[in-house]
Structure formats: C-alpha cells, structure tokens
Prior knowledge:
This protein is of the alpha/beta class.
Amino acid sequence: MQGFPNEEILNDRPPRKRVVVSGCFDLLHSGHVRFLQEAARLGELYVCIGSDENVYQLKGRSPVATQEERRYMLEALACVHAARINSGFGLLDFTAELVDIQPDIFIVNEDGHSPAKEALCREQGIEYVVSRRVPEAGLPTRSTTALRVECTIPYRIDLAGGWLDQPWVSEHYPGPVLTASIEPGYDFNNRSGMATSTRKKAVELWKTALPAGAPEQWAKVLFGYENLPGTMEIAGSQDALGIMLPGLNKLNYAGGYWPGSIESVHEEEIISWLESHLYLVTLGPREFGYQVLADTRITSEGARALAEAAEGCWQAILSRDLPAFGACFRRSFEAQIAMFPNMADEAVFRTIEQYRSQALGWKLSGAGGGGYLVLVSDRPVERAIQVKIRRKDGY
C-alpha cells in the first residue's frame, strides 16, 4: 500500500504561487464559485473584498450581505485560503492588501478588467490574468445584479453631442445629442456617465420595469422627478430620454431643456451594426467633488463643432460607414473637451494612447468625465465590454 510522502520530499516541493482576486462577492452564486475555483487552480487563493462603504460609493447602493458576512462565506469555501476586507476606496481599493500579500498572480473576470488594475500589477511585478465569464456546464449564467432583483430598467449611453442638451450650450449653436438605451445586463458603476443617477430615479418611480406606452411622455415625468423645483444644476433631458426611448435616438436641441424634435432608429440591421462596433473600457467612476464645469470655454464655434460632429455620427450610422463614424465620434469628443477641458485628465489620455491602435474613434461615456472610455472599432477589443441596445418594445 502506498504511504504518505515523507517530510523531506514535501520540503523539496516548490512553494505554491499566491493568487489574489478582488470584488464585492455580494449574494454569492455559482458564477462566483466557478471563478474562485478557476483562480484557485493557479495557486493559494486570497480573496480581497470591497468594504460596505466602498461598494456603496461605487454602486450607489449598499450590499445585501455585510462585509463580515461576505468574508465568512468566502472563507467557508474549500478553494479559498483567506479573505480580507479591502482598506482602500475606488476601483483600486485592494492596493494595500496586494502589497501586503505579495501575490504572484492577480486574476479578474473580463468585465472586471481595467487598465488601472493592469498597470498596478505591472508596477508590482504581478502576473495579470483575465478570465472569461463561463458558467459551469449545465448551470445558468449568473450575476449579482440579476439575483438582487429582476430589474429591466435600462441605462443610457451618450454617443455624440453630449452637453447640447443644456440650453446654455445649444443657445450658442443648435445641434443633436445621440443616445441609445442600454439593456441592464451589466452593473455599471455609479457616477460613470451611463445615466446611473437618472436610472435610480426611475427605479424609485417604477421599481423594476418601465411603464408601458408613450415613452417620451414618461421621460418628461422622469425628467421632472429628477429636477424638482429648486434644483440648482438641472440634469440634461438626454438622460431621461435616453433611458425611456428604445433603440437609437437623435435629440435635436436649440436652446431649450427639451429637444424640439426627436428622430429614432429601430431597424435591426443598423442597431446590430452599431452595437457590434462599440466597446467600453473601464476608467472608474467620477470622484465626489469633481467639478466638470470649472474652466469651461463655451463658444459658438465650439458648440458648432460639437453639433456638426454629432450630425456626422448620425449620418455615418445610418449609412453604416464605420470609418466616418469613428472619425466623427472622435471629433465629438475633441469638441467636448475643447469647451470642457476638465472632462479628461492625464489618466484618460494615457488610456486613449493604450487603445489608439485598436480603435477608429473614442470618447468618454456621458459628458461628465470618467466612467468608461467608449471605443469604435472594426475588430474585437480585448478585455472590453460590449453593450446590448434595447430594442423597440415588441420589435
């Protein structure tokens, strides 16, 4: 009968690599377990979990399970060596824990990748691994968002012309804002330019689903609810309209808070073409106290450049002209930061340089800086998120 290896043989074995993963891990589900088991195959697994306070800052909501509950459940898994509560804040809240643990490998799911995480690992000499989100055979794909509540209220992506929905911009030159309603298959970070604040108001009003019929009228209700009398900084109506109106929409502004006209596209060929060429790279949410309106330089020439770039995007999308779309997409961003230079900082420009060779155009999600770098590309962009545009009800 074969016996146990003696102590000398055991001591000659190379030490196991240390592996770190980080995340919220709220409402532990099969997708989490599959990811953790995969990570544990690479070595001794340490799980660094976001604190309750940081989860609230990032997601705009508190986790269902407290940080101590989440740590307890994770450490109960056989594949987990130890779990820690992160001491920092933001997307890199695990930095101190990473330095302390000194892992060989840091692993993220593909929707948890960000250039900032990759750069941190490169600085620390840590191997950076991106895992694909693949469920265990025979089991459904799970996400914490879907388990919390089956909420179908969409997000909004600003494709071009953002800021023209503010009358103090479009009064200088009229022009369109292009928006698309985005299915809530991904839990976008709070304050990330995906109309998360307006969506929260929609959830307050309607809980889990948008009301049926008359989407523009319901958008007026949502806009009024978000901008109650006495509101100092009026949220642009493109957020409410972008959430409520399915498909792709061109909102034409001319010095008012509400567009004078709206043009919509629901043709499947155009919608599927558009979403197949859009990729989002995580930059992180805007910091609290961020002042995007500081140092603004709003001029008629600037507003005109923004309006013409947005119009160019619209025409390129309708004709499915990808090079023209990429060029006008980039021009829209350049026109934005010419008037609102605080939208982009050095970190944003470094990320653009990192992806410049892979993209035909780029801009920031929303008009408030941070969040996601949106890319237009003629080929798949590794480690980037693709969104699903909400189709017309019953289409």
